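FW: tagging you since you asked about this chain on Friday. Here's the raw sequence from the shared folder, copied in full. Didn't touch anything.
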Amino acid sequence: MLAKSFLRQCTASTALKLANVTLPLKHEIDNLGTISDVTGRGIIVIDMHREMPDDQVTDIAELIVDAVNAYTSHP
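HL: got it, structure written out here
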């Protein structure tokens, strides 16, 4: 898988940059469950079929955003 190859060869920040993801990530509250990069490009969608409760989707999205931003040293 491309992501594993990137992570073996470089830092997570560099791997994301090579995938054209500009850090930091943010959770779009107006588009619940969508995680976008700093340019506003959506890169991850949590629960695209809207089967989970909104608060659960928000919690998952914010955990992912916080984890990636902390791991890559972006507040």
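FW: Helices lie at 2-9, 12-18, 54-71.
HL: agreed, and Residues 23-75 form one domain.
FW: great, closing this out.
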